[in-house]
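ingest -> fold -> write
write: protein_1
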Amino acid sequence: MGDVKTWTVVGAGLAGLLAARRLARAGHVVTVLESEPHVGGRVSRHQVDGLGLDAGAESFATRGGHAAALAIELGLGDRIVQPEPLPAWVVTPDDAYPLPRTGWLGVPTVSLSREVARAIGWAGALRALADRFMPVHGVDDSTSLGELARHRLGDAATDRLVAPVVQGIYSRPLEDITLGDIAPGLGDEVARSGSLVRTATARRAAAPAGAAVLGIDGGIATLTEALVADARAAGATIVTEAPVGAVERAGHEWKVWSEGTAHRADAVVLAVPRPIVAALVPDVARAQARHVALVTLALESPELDAAPRGTGVLAVGNGSGAKALTHATAKWAWLAREAHGHHIVRLSYGIDNARDARPHALEDAAHLLGVPLEESQLRDIERVQWHDSAPARVEDREPVPGLHLVGSAAGLSGIAAIAAADARSTLGA
């Protein structure tokens, strides 16, 4: 272990808590400052119809195995669960169709399957198959996925398969998402394999057996609750309702100002969204925020018992602004058990116009699920808003000596990516 230092961590979301635990375990003096009255950030809970539901992430990607390993390390291995084996659907203004189960990020790995033909027609399926026979030139991590998919798979596969899936994850136009945004080195993989479909097939085959995502019985927020206890046991101090207004370099140390108090530290970890990083240290970061609102409905609707649209819906061209819906009680058996016959659905909205989605959420849910829903069937409704839902990746995670960026501040999105970054971290060593 190196010299003992005093660290201040700004933000008690998953990334901040992981950093605090790592530093405390290394013997450092660690204080975490969180502006909210509770910890967890996007991996926290809220109450809907008497149920403690995930307010943000409700699953984690299996890629790399780091998120599952973290859950097991925290004693939650026996509570890891798979989603129900139902397809997700895509709903457009004039069509609804299930996504092929053999795709990777919407890229069809079995181009001539009936599932693919149902979604994009046989002509579209044959056009997508052409990718296997086209040479690859000039592809690297800076290549736009949208432009590459359109060139290699055709418009039908790009617009009806790839775009709904990828835009649902990254909340950006497909043309603005690069191969490097999805995974560093992905451009080289496409170039080596000579095919986008072959790369997708290899990526899918390399994923752990079973579902592409996993959950935790009781909710993903259980992960945060266990991590808080572990970080505190390691010696970290976690202070809530402590908003940070400024971060300043003072000679060889830092001052982190919160509620008129200067917390002095040898080093600082920023574990907050990029817009907050830009506000605290404007010389280090610039950011344009992309927001998302999640509206959760508790419904009494026997028509939903059969899960008519599987585990959820990706919306294309929905005039209301809802970009996706998760039928949570169809996706997670543990939640269906807890809901006692009622249904929980969650809609995701991009809210660049700051519109409150609650007034039309019931109508949007009915449209996306393909069933009539009346006001009398609505048992409860709650809305949460998250900032910087799809941050751009950051190249330098220590932009100045002693200032470290983790999680959203480092451009990372999702539990799997954050857990993987922590597993590779040498912070505090």
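write: protein_2
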Amino acid sequence: MNRLVISRVEVFLEEDVYVALCPDLDVSSFGDTAEEAKLSLHEALEAFLEECEAMGTLEHVLEESGFTRRNGSWLARQPIAAELLPIG
């Protein structure tokens, strides 16, 4: 593939399994360790993006997900602030 997509990855420990999530594309995977979960997510993202390319929808999917193209790469939108907000 001749494209670079840069996105956030979040890793959570859910019971005894590590879950890696790419919130910008709503793709997730898992593993026995945090590193294994991230590697598995990378493979899942590659497969997702390859399928989008094959279907001719990659640009549309990335733009709809808030990505912008910069210097030949696709960059996920970046928050100007992030915080936890108590509700209730």
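write: annotation protein_2
The CA atoms of residues 9 and 22 lie 5 Å apart.
The helical segments are 34-55, 58-64.
pipeline exit 0
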